[in-house]
Amino acid sequence: MFDEQRAVPWWWWLVAFVIIVPTVEAIVVLGPEMTTQAGWLAGGITLAITVAAITFALIALSSVGVTVRPEGLLAGKTLLPTSAIGQIRSLDAVTARQVLGQQARADAHLSIRPWIKTAIQIEVVDSVDTTPYWVVATRRPAELIGVLHTLRSVNLGDAALPTGSMNVAEPMTMNRAEQ
Known about the structure:
Blueprint: E1 2-5, H1 10-30, H2 37-62, E2 65-69, E3 72-75, E4 78-81, E5 85-91, H3 93-100, E6 109-111, E7 119-124, E8 133-137, H4 141-156
Parallel strand pairs: 6-8
Antiparallel strand pairs: 1-2, 2-3, 3-4, 5-7, 7-8
Helix pairs in contact: 1-2
């Protein structure tokens, strides 16, 4: 259906290298003399720990994906059931910044990554769930919206599903009392 790994940009790995080199160099310069075995050991341990920590952090940041399954939208480890998917709209970089900034609601579910500028906003139509909407960062918003509409129409038999023609200038501010 749909699967997107939201990996960090390649240049983040270059930045990580720029961090690793001075860190190891500082230990080598400020640590024990490098002509001894203790000096080489300190430099090697520092290099190994720094590389492992930064690699772990970058891989962890890249591991949270977006997947559409028959049971719903999976963003990270959180599932939005198909039955709870309401109106969906695509957010360009400017609109996403507004929705995540000035128009943000504290009770919204956010699955965002700072290096991905586009997203989709999904209205939650579940009487039990108090979350008004989800914002999910994606590099392929049109494709994700299409897959979610197809999923809803197949699983729920909704022939008259909203097509994403919402006014993107208007914030999605459905309150539970309005539903």
